[in-house]
Amino acid sequence: MQHYTKPLDIRYDAKPQSFKISEPSHKVPMSCMFLCRFDVRKGNELVWSQTSPSSPNIALKNLEFKTIPSGIHETQKDLVHFVIPKLKSFDDVYYGVSCFEQNALALSENSDQLDRSKVLMYSLGVIVDANFRYKGVSKSKYYDWKPNQFISATEYISDIQDLLSHWLQKVALSPEKPQDYELFETYFESNCLKPETATLSSPVLRRSWQNSATFTGSPRALQDKHPHMIESLMQWFSFLGPLIFPLWKASLLRQRVLIIVGDGVSFEKCNALVYCLSILSLFPHGTANLTHEQPLQPLYTIGITDVEALTQHISEAIASQNESYEIPGFVACTGDTILEDRPELYDICLRINNEDLIPQIKTNDGSSYKATPHELELYEKLVPVHLGYELSHDEKEKICKLVEPTTWSQYLIDGFYWWATAGYMKPSYHEADEDLMTDSERDNIEIVLSLVGYFHERISTLHHSMKDAVQSSEEGNVTVSPVFLSANSLDCFSQRDYDFIHFICRRWFNRTLQVQSIDCKLLC
């Protein structure tokens, strides 16, 4: 994947009719801080933790497997986002982030034999409750919006990275000494959630006090913050190619999307994709009768130890005794590839391999899930408009492997047009060849916002079109022609897109939608 050259500090805010960026006035106080390690003899273990008296019931069991997930040992440093259920299901959760760092890779580079006694492999993290409230303090408008709650722990990333690196340097110098956690304890005390009203004047609400330089003496500037997860959207748009569209549609349907993190792939980047899919499938403000729709819940990093909670997630929906019960959707990633063999836990599964291999999607029945030919055509037109460059020949060859074959119906109609017009005209279901202006000087955030705006505009357009179709039809089934799909940038020859608008109509309007068979209108 490409890497950014200009990290930006961006925050989301909810404004009517827009998708605007802002920044919170303060960090959410910590509910818990912890340190996990991988021991060559004992495996993963939680070695230190401190919990706020205001949050005594945080379940830390198996936290060491969540924050040092399978496969992370192949990277020197990484970030892991995660959630912890407040009860036994994922209906209400704490949000956490941990910084992983190790020296094993560096040790193995300098020696043919690895001295296991010198291996340091740790993960330092924080857990926050985005719903925290202080007595006497006004409700935080910033964290009223769900997508802002999803990233409520990320404010501590730069600090815990500095704290862990500083602490590991001291441990490496004196590995025989008992480990001292005073540095973490002091930082936690200055940033934790306190029940006393008197602590409202605490440094916890002053951003300048929360930088780790106060505790480590690091020269890091206060403005040097970790990039926001949404900034990776441009990278993922390039890497996934037209597969971004079926992932977006699955997220819009609030399905269960599981991402398998391949060997050597960054958990930080995959967690960012989790967040991006939740953002892309948000319903724009002002979209009538969709305000009740909750964002797709990101679970970030999960593993084998979460199977029980995921199973209960499903069981509670089935046991609701509602004929039209719905299993709550989510998007998550995992390094435990065995979860791919548990189809009852997900609807679609995306496997992210390294840069030399292409991503793959399959459904829970084991069938391959690819982009449609129309989505390939759409992607090839969007890249120069939004990303500002033309796809190379090699890139086009790669993304063509992600697309299902053209149907015979489309093949025959395309052939007829080519023969009848000497290649001068295309059927109306193709994307129009327009000369759209591009600005190659745009920075990352402008590109990201244009991509987010594109997907949100498609949601609004589809909703308005479907609303008109529903209102113009009598009670019972809603019938539309294949032209309806083309008008909404969908593939009028794809059975998957037929199924998509059927399910989305059922979800949004509780009506059954049917698509007429291909007719001659497509030739107009």
Termini Cα gap:
41 Å
In the CATH hierarchy, the third-tier topology of the domain at 8-201 is known as Beta-Lactamase
State Rg.
Answer: 25 Å
Return the CATH architecture of the domain at 8-201.
2-Layer Sandwich
**What is the percent of helical residues?**
25-40%
Structural class of the secondary structure composition? alpha/beta
Largest sheet: 5 strands, antiparallel
* Topology order in helix (H) and strand (E) letters: EEEEHEEHEHHHHHHEHEHEEEHHHHEHHE
Strand content: 15-25%
Q: Briefly, what CATH class of the domain at 8-201?
A: Alpha Beta
Low-confidence stretches: 1-17, 197-209, 520-524
Descriptive terms for the model:
five-stranded mixed β-sheet, Beta-Lactamase, disordered N terminus, 16 helices, single chain, disordered C terminus
Describe, in short, the structure shown.
This protein is an alpha/beta fold.
What is the topology?
Blueprint: E1 12-15, E2 18-21, E3 30-39, E4 43-51, H1 63-67, E5 77-85, E6 93-102, H2 104-109, E7 121-128, H3 146-150, H4 157-173, H5 182-191, H6 213-216, H7 233-240, H8 244-252, E8 256-261, H9 267-280, E9 297-302, H10 307-318, E10 330-334, E11 348-352, E12 360-363, H11 373-387, H12 393-400, H13 408-421, H14 444-472, E13 478-480, H15 482-487, H16 495-509, E14 513-515
Parallel strand pairs: 8-10, 8-11, 9-10, 13-14
Antiparallel strand pairs: 1-2, 3-4, 3-7, 5-6, 6-7, 11-12
